[in-house]
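sorry for the late reply, my laptop died twice this morning and i had to redo everyting from scratch. anyway the thing you sent over, i finally got around to it. pasting the sequence first so we're on the same page, its 440 residues, then the predicted structure underneath. double check i copied it right bc i was rushing
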Amino acid sequence: MPAENASANGPVADRVRRIAHLDLPGAGQVTVSGDHCYIGHIPQADGLGTTIVNVADPANPKVVATIMLDDPESHSHKVRVVGDVMIVNHEQNNRGIGRKAEEMQDARARLVETLGREPTDAEIAGRLGLNEADINLLIAAEKQLYDNGGFKIYDVADPADPRLLHYQKTGGKGVHRFDMDERYAYISTEMEGFQGNILVIYDIAEPARPQEVSRWWMPGQHIAGGETPHWQGRQHRLHHALRFGDRMWASVWHGGFRVIDVSDLSDPKTIGTCNYHPPFPAPTHTVMPVPFKVEGRELMLAIDEEDAYYNPTEAARRKGQPHANLWVFDVSDMDDIKPLSIFQVGELDSPWSRTPNSRFGAHQFHEKMVDSLVYCTWFSGGLRIIDIADPLAPQEVGSFVPEPAAGQPAPQSNDVYVDDRGLIHLVDRNVGYDILEFTR
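ok and here's the structure:
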């Protein structure tokens, strides 16, 4: 619907104008190709997977297709499109509980060692950052078998009529975020014999018959190969990796990030490592290179995900610790990667920054730069446009904080994409899709 009818209260904006708004269900990722926007949805009760919207007239976006899931145990909240090929993920629902279930035995063992006795359910829950009532959910999750993880490839030559070409099974709880280009898909997924998500590269020259090319993982993840992780549970795992030229830039959660040489795609090699956790508690969500040098230096950006403050137990435990933020790194020397600066949004910069049970800090940025501007989502902080022309002192030059959708306590801006026209596509984790314009 037109922007002026979206809300009587309106957003909080600085040099950003809303062109249009649709009350679409909560989304995990948004991407634009040509005249169409593709939105992958957070798990929905009705099984909604992907919505395709015609945005040729950005003031009047129109839904032209929806893809529903036939598997109530899975969701499909990520989507990418290159040419006529669309890929969406297939991942187990409620994976947070599933992952905590896998950590439960380790938590119990550590507590036995510390306490000298069997811990209570309340003590185990406290160690995992959960409520005691959640222990029964963990026990059920431990017993649940899941064999539907993977990704699906569609032909979207006609976006109004997407055609499924192939369903590629992977392993574990399935595929999370990923990257793709005209020839390859760079998939972050669990696989049998590994602990946590790893990178699996597929050749999609024939989209109906993808072929595995290679795998990359951190030493310690290949349990079946005799490796032993030096971290607890799934704290170090691939979130996703982005390809730029012959390098891939991989965010590995509480393990920071890795830079991977893929000049030989059949044999990916780690050439750079950096981990700033601790002291910073929020895990690394996305990393990408800056496409130009500044004063002779090669730069890289990282953005962390706010993953604790919305959970009441974790919020109480982490009170006083910094929110997730944006980082600027000097990566001129892969043997000596250095942080240069961070950018943080203050709690006073959003009226919903302290809303109970809602996240506030950073989450994601548009995964491509054409100039010195970075377009970031900040959950209840909305969209923040940050200029890193001076990498030692990033400056905010625009912002847009949507009003909460009906029935929601706060906005939860989750993902952002900037199209070839310079228009900004912003999706909310709960409800809402906005088309915006930076008025500069």
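The longest strand covers residues 16-25.
thats about all i looked at so far, will dig more tmrw
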